[in-house]
Amino acid sequence: MYSMTTLTPRRTAILTFIRDRIAQQGQPPSLAEIAEAFGFASRSVARKHVLALTEAGFIEVNPNQARGIRLLNQPVRPEWLDVPVLGRVAAGLPIGADAEVHSRLQLDPSTFAKTPDYLLRVQGDSMIEDGILDGDLVGVRRSAEALNGQIVVARWMAK
User: Fold this and answer.
1) What are the φ and ψ backbone dihedral angles of 22, each rounded to 5 degrees?
2) Mind listing the pLDDT tens digit for each residue in 13-70?
3) Secondary structure of residue 68 in the 3-state scheme
4) Which of 7, 10, 16, 149 is the most buried (most CB within 10 A)?
5) Which of 82, 60, 81 has the alpha carbon at shortest distance from 72?
6) Which DSSP helix (H) or strand (E) runs through 20?
7) CATH number, domain with residue 42
8) 66: in domain
9) Are residues 87 and 123 in the same domain?
10) How far apart are CA 54 and CA 58, in angstroms?
11) Domain range spanning residue 10?
12) Is 108 exposed, middle or buried (0-12, 13-18, 19+ CB in 10 A)?
């Protein structure tokens, strides 16, 4: 494992940027955001620095996620929830299944009355009257039953 003193000043700044973005927004920056923040001509320059931080053992990267950077050896703030964002949910016309983990967010537990199992991004505008807008993230708790008056995400399974 390397120490902060073995990193170049630029890579130390990028690691600090990643840490700060996770602390402030609950998710890591994308390569495009790193490139923009540091004035790089392209994402490939940001990718080079991220790869060096990975090889140094400070972060890991999931190549299948736009925001796949994860800090290593950094405790998640125990008072925060670590909630996966699984995909989209239709508010209006049905959409196809989209149940893969797209990213993860660390959120203050007081955001929710009950801790959600996962988050989904709303697509459509049929729930506007209930304050759920197109593009919103909604917290979902798994349950085998729904009570009258609850807003639910339902999955119909044909026999």
Assistant:
1) -65, -45
2) 999 899 888 877 878 999 999 999 999 998 899 999 999 999 988 899 988 887 889 8
3) coil
4) 7
5) 60
6) helix 9-25
7) 1.10.10.10
8) yes
9) yes
10) 6
11) 4-71
12) exposed
3-state secondary structure of 69: strand
Number of domains making up the chain: 2
Phi first, then psi: give them for residue 109, nearest 5 degrees: -60, -25
For residue 137, give Cα distances in angstroms to 49, 59, 123, 125, 133.
Answer: 31, 26, 10, 13, 9
Q: Residue written as tokens 């026999």?
A: 159
Q: Quick one: tokens of 77?
A: 């703030």
Locus of tokens 């009570």: 147
Q: Measured between alpha carbons, how far is 90 from 93 in angstroms, rounded to an integer?
A: 6
Residues recorded for the chain: 159
Helices and strands (H, E) in the chain, number of each type: 3, 6
Q: Which residue has the tokens 């920056």?
A: 29
For residue 90, the cross-strand partners are 123
The label of the residue with tokens 């399974």 reads 157
pLDDT digits (tens, 9 = 90+) for 56-75: 888 999 888 878 898 887 65
- For the chain, helix, strand, coil in percent to 5 are 30, 20, 50
